[in-house]
Design brief:
about 550 residues; Aspartate Aminotransferase, domain 1; 11 strands; Aspartate Aminotransferase, domain 2; alpha/beta; seven-stranded mixed beta sheet; globular
């Protein structure tokens, strides 16, 4: 059929139907021509789209979905943390059907999809999920995401998202106040830690590089640009080095001291050595809760070095920086007010549903200098209004979803005191796990910082004198972790600490209780005995 013919035929049929109605009522000869034209236009303008849902159906399906989600949340502790299904098994459940030719009822779709997600997912909202650093998501965050999607603002330009822009700006200010830095900081919501750190990395480079960087790109006329971080830094820094044209040889990996903190003396000496050989240092990264053990670097000492040498001081606080809200941990984070930028992830220790990362920058003009552009097809000015913020000038994205809403609402639901209580409880539970491991004859406690505890299983009567025994314990604990991750009773991750393969337990979960911690100890020991017996029989 000729393209566009079917829609035209449909329009003709609508007009014919309209005339038939008028003829049946003997209305044609009684109506003025202008009225007749208006009636026909109104009748033909009622477009019916196949993706629309009627008001009644939307409410009906919405109520059913909310009931299903409510039941899921209420019973999540009774479910396995994960089913442990293989990709092949998951594919079998999903099926291999081709793209459907015709539509399916919305009610049927939500019923089937709810079943798929509730019964075939890793449940990071489960009280025994302590793996990696994905938090148990707030119920208010789930509702906020629904609300945000319904309005669907594009938070790239103020004119496209007036109230959403204002809410994001306020949320950024609240996060700055929350961790104890100046509320005059600017910032932007991003997808997570990688993007927050990337955003800061490029702002640092623009601020410290020769002024011709944008036109001429990376050149070594002024010396190769190099940057510094501890060996405990997250892999985002390697991605940044590669993706932004520096290469991994530009990274200066600074050793850690006995406490797993960046060695300040070696940092200072390495910077001096680079300057002597013509390199151009521009950035130092401090960890506020490293990925493996939760250690916080000596941030005030790093800040002093950066100030003395005119380097950008960035803090990767994606996980740990929210603990700065707790009064007794304030000294641990001394130095954060001196940072030029701080990355933090509300979808980690502020319990927001994915995705919600944020970058704070002491002087937000550095973001604009890095990311702003003004093509002729943008009409996003309003420069006369000093309150106007166009977030497309603050980061990588032009089109941006409303990530800030779920954080903004949760901050108001519980307030500062509520987060102090929850974060403090997570830390206390981590300390409890460490103490329980210390007491147990088949567990070895390794580290405990913030809400991360590392430990490992050691069979009764096992000696660690010979190197092969050390290797065996690493193999045992690696296989034990695999067993636990597949078993569905608890979900942990791993860390290497002093060449020891450890079970890593990170508690950023407002559902976890002391009862869960005691049960997790028993689960680890029971599974450890099973894996040890299996290895001994091989």
């Amino acid at each position: 059929m000729e393209p566009g013919l079917q829609p035209r035929r449909q329009g003709v049929n609508v007009v014919r139907h309209a005339f038939a109605i008028l003829l049946q009522g003997n209305l044609l000869e009684k109506l003025p021509l202008s009225n007749l034209k208006e009636i026909i236009i109104n009748m033909t303008n009622n477009r019916k789209s196949p993706i629309e849902i009627t008001n009644e159906d939307f409410k009906k399906v919405g109520y059913q979905l909310i009931d299903a989600i409510s039941h899921f949340i209420d019973t999540i502790h009774e479910r396995p943390v994960t089913t442990g299904e293989s990709p092949k098994q998951i594919q079998s459940v999903l099926g291999n059907a081709s793209l459907p030719q015709h539509g399916t009822s919305v009610s049927e779709l939500f019923s089937r999809t709810s079943d798929l997600l509730f019964n075939h997912s890793l449940l990071n909202g489960h009280p025994k999920f302590l793996g990696y650093i994905t938090s148990s998501p707030t119920p208010i965050g789930a509702l906020a995401d629904l609300l945000a999607a319904a309005v669907n603002p594009n938070v790239g330009a103020n004119i496209l998202s007036p109230i959403a822009t204002a809410i994001e700006k306020q949320t950024v200010r609240w996060l700055a106040e929350f961790i104890g830095v100046s509320p005059t900081c600017g910032g932007i919501f991003v997808s997570g830690g990688n993007m927050a750190n990337f955003t800061a990395f490029l702002a640092a480079r623009t601020a410290k590089a020769p002024k011709n960087l944008k036109e001429d790109g990376l050149r070594n006329d002024h010396g190769e640009m190099v940057f510094y971080c501890s060996k405990a830094t997250h892999t985002w820094i390697e991605k940044a080095a590669v993706l932004f044209g520096h290469g991994t040889k530009a990274i200066r990996w600074i050793p850690t001291d006995a406490d797993n903190k960046m060695n300040i003396d070696i940092l200072s000496q390495t910077i001096n050595d680079d300057v002597k050989i013509g390199k151009m240092p521009f950035l130092v990264i401090g960890n506020a809760g490293d990925i493996s053990t939760g250690v916080v670097d000596n941030l005030s000492a790093i800040a002093a070095i950066c100030k003395a040498k005119d380097l950008w001081f960035h803090i990767d606080g994606a996980y740990g920086i929210p603990a700065a809200v707790i009064p007794e941990y304030k000294d641990l984070f001394d130095g954060i007010r001196e940072a030029d930028s701080i990355a933090l992830d509300p979808h980690k220790w502020l319990y927001a549903p994915l995705e919600a990362g944020c970058i704070l920058v002491k002087n937000p003009q550095h973001l604009i200098d890095t990311y702003s552009s003004h093509p002729v097809y943008y009409n996003f000015g309003n420069q006369d209004d000093e309150l106007t913020v166009n977030y497309l000038e603050y980061g990588f994205q032009n089109s941006r979803g409303f990530r800030a809403l779920k954080v903004w609402m949760a901050l108001q639901q519980v307030g500062r005191d509520g987060y102090i209580e929850m974060i403090g409880e997570d830390i206390s539970l981590s300390q409890l796990l460490f103490e329980e491991a210390k007491k147990h004859p088949e567990l070895e406690e390794i580290t405990q910082n913030l809400s991360i505890t590392t430990l490992r299983y050691i069979p009764l009567g096992f000696t660690q004198i010979e190197n092969n025994n050390k290797t065996y314990l690493n193999t045992l604990n690696q296989k034990l972790l695999n067993e636990l991750q597949q078993g569905g009773e608890v979900f942990l991750s791993n860390a290497f600490v002093a060449d020891k393969y450890c079970l890593r337990c990170c508690i950023v979960n407002f559902r976890t209780s002391s009862k869960d911690i005691l049960e997790i100890v028993d689960i680890i020991v029971r599974a450890g005995r099973k894996v040890h017996k299996m290895l001994q029989s091989e």
